[in-house]
Design brief:
The chain is of the alpha/beta class. It has one domain: Rossmann fold. The protein contains four helices and nine strands. The strands form two sheets. Strands 4-3-2-5-6-7 form a six-stranded mixed sheet, with helices on both faces. A three-stranded antiparallel sheet has the order 1-9-8. Helix 1 packs across helix 2. The longest helix has 18 residues. The radius of gyration is 16 Å and the shape is globular. The two termini are about 20 Å apart. The chain binds guanosine-5'-monophosphate (5GP). Guanosine-5'-monophosphate binds next to strand 5, helix 3 and strand 8.
């Protein structure tokens, strides 16, 4: 990790402690259900890989990739499905795994799309939540850490596709992107 570019917010150990707690909570809540864990690419891939190994239940895994419709329509929250789920979610208890909820517009849109497909339930689990930035009414059922409005990289999150491999959750120093 280049500590001239990033500042550690939560180190690997703090993250794993919290991921274990979330896994236990989810294990308790989903007893006897039909759990399908849906990861939103790419940011959630590391969080999801750690989290599912802390869930002691039978479960299925699928992935979805979405992108915003270009800069001018970002605020509308309209997203394009770049990769849809491979399987039907009918009668499944869907748990969406997201890296970070910011305005909430992306997840609001994804939830609306998935609701129409007849799941038994849909809940959201995010590693990070920036509630101060919310524009859509999205309240994740499971939150790793609630954080102030900083730009985060590491543990799966990127800036221009870099830093995803950093093991800690880091704040990207403004000097990097204000150059
Ligand atoms: P929302 O629709 O909630 O505003 O946007 C959520 C998405 O924006 C996240 O899945 C993530 O891709 C991106 N995002 C929001 N805040 C951050 C951040 O601090 N760091 C990074 N790397 N991505 C972010």
């Amino acid at each position: 990790m280049d500590l001239e570019q990033v500042e550690i917010l939560f180190d690997r150990e703090q993250v794993m402690t919290r991921v274990k707690e979330l896994g236990q909570e989810i294990t308790n809540d989903y007893q006897g259900k039909n759990l399908l864990v849906v990861g939103i690419l790419k940011g959630a891939f590391i969080f999801m890989a750690d989290l599912v190994r802390e869930i002691d239940l039978p479960l299925e895994i699928d992935f979805m990739d979405v992108s915003s419709y270009g800069v001018s329509t970002v605020s509308s929250g309209e997203v394009r499905i770049v990769k849809d789920l491979d399987y039907s979610i009918r009668k499944k208890d869907v748990l969406i795994i997201e890296d970070i909820v910011d305005t909430g517009l992306t997840l609001h849109y994804i939830k609306e799309i998935l609701k129409k497909r007849g799941p038994r339930s849909i809940k959201i689990c995010c590693l990070l939540d920036k509630p101060s930035r919310r524009k859509a009414e999205i309240i994740p059922e499971y939150v790793g850490f609630s954080i102030p409005d900083n730009f985060i990289v590491g543990y799966g999150l990127d800036y221009a596709e870099q830093y995803r491999n950093y093991p800690a959750v880091c704040i990207l120093k403004p000097s990097v992107y204000e150059k």
